[in-house]
Specification:
Rossmann fold, 8 helices, five-stranded parallel β-sheet, 2 domains, alpha/beta, 16 strands, single chain, about 30% helix, globular, about 325 residues, seven-stranded mixed β-sheet
């Protein structure tokens, strides 16, 4: 990741707005860019409808709206759409929807009869609301980029999470994907660490329940980095960790980008063989989720760098790769 260069001659041409989903991340990004977040009122009408007003003049400005569609997902999504509409009607020159976490991404195909493709629906809503561009991090499925009819910049957090593990200097390491779908992501980390790759072969019984069938690869006597893009109820990761432990793994670290942590996830993590769960701040952690086993790393520098580059029409392709190590993210 390159050092962020503050553009001293912005003359207020860049505006950062934040919704209510993760204002702390927005403030951190603004600080890195040397600007302040825009003055926005987010309220509710008596019956619960969302009320938005942008108090700053954004006519002709390059507007970035930072809003992950995390818990509560429907409220966060509606806030994002209304903020985009407000910016469009205020004559913003360009509107970039910055989604550190893109919700509804797990519903990206018809895998059963009579189910929706909600990821495509959400993409349509964002475009229809008036967004000109989308900036997001570690999509659940890369093909979701194709659901948008506007440019999408898809960043990866490997530079942040990978650097954390490089500093740990863990010996005898193996990177493990919790399912076949995560092999590409796991391969990138395995190449970064210069270690072997293993895969958990599991059968999904429901949206929150899985059953581990086999471990493909050698994990006995090795320290494990278990990777995934998000953790919801924690069932899949915990079951995978138990299976790895049963196959002779030593210390198990879970490295997850988006900490949804719904339902009984925290209790499961507490009582699991996972030594440490490393996540990003794409989704904020509430007080009850800040347990000693969880380490949260910031992706604000990554997003700030991308926003600076988009605003100044500079290529962001260097953010898709770790050039020093030659590792594809």
């Amino acid at each position: 990741m390159t050092k962020i260069r503050i553009h001293k001659k912005n003359n207020g041409s860049m505006v950062l707005l934040t919704g209510g989903a993760n204002p702390a991340l927005g403030q951190e990004i603004a600080k890195l860019l040397g600007i302040r977040t825009g003055n926005v009122t987010l309220g509710r009408f008596p019956e619960g409808e969302i009320q938005v007003q942008i108090h700053d003049n954004i006519r002709g400005k390059d507007v970035f709206i930072i809003q992950p569609t995390c818990t509560p997902p429907n409220e966060s999504l509606m806030e994002l759409l209304i903020l985009i509409d407000a910016a469009r009607r205020a004559s913003a020159k360009r509107i970039t929807a910055v989604l550190p976490f893109f919700g509804y991404a797990r519903q990206d195909r018809k895998d059963r009869p009579r189910v929706p493709i909600t990821a495509k629906l959400v993409a349509n809503l964002i475009v229809s609301a008036g967004a000109n561009r989308v900036l997001t991090v570690d999509l659940h499925a890369g093909q979701i980029q194709g659901f948008f009819d506007i440019p999408v910049d898809h960043l990866y957090s490997i530079a942040v999470l990978g650097a954390y593990f490089k500093k740990k200097k863990l010996k005898n390491l193996v990177v493990v994907s919790p399912d076949v779908g995560g092999i590409k992501m796991a391969r990138g980390y395995a190449k970064l660490f210069g270690c072997d790759l293993a895969v958990v072969d599991k059968r999904r019984e429901s949206a929150s329940t899985t059953h581990v069938m086999h471990i493909i690869g050698s994990v006995a006597g090795k320290n494990v980095v278990l990777l995934d893009d998000l953790i919801s109820t924690g069932g899949s990761i915990v079951e995978a960790a138990k299976a790895l432990k049963a196959h002779g793994a030593k210390d198990i670290y879970a490295c997850i980008v988006h900490p949804v942590l719904a339902g009984s996830a925290i209790e499961r993590i507490k009582n699991s063989p996972i030594k440490e769960l490393i996540v990003t701040n794409s989704i904020p952690l509430t007080k009850e989720k800040r347990i000693s086993k969880i380490t949260q790393l910031s992706i604000a520098p990554l997003l700030a760098d991308a926003i600076w580059r988009i605003h100044n029409d500079v290529s962001i392709s260097t953010l898709f790769f770790n050039n020093e190590l030659g590792v594809e993210a």
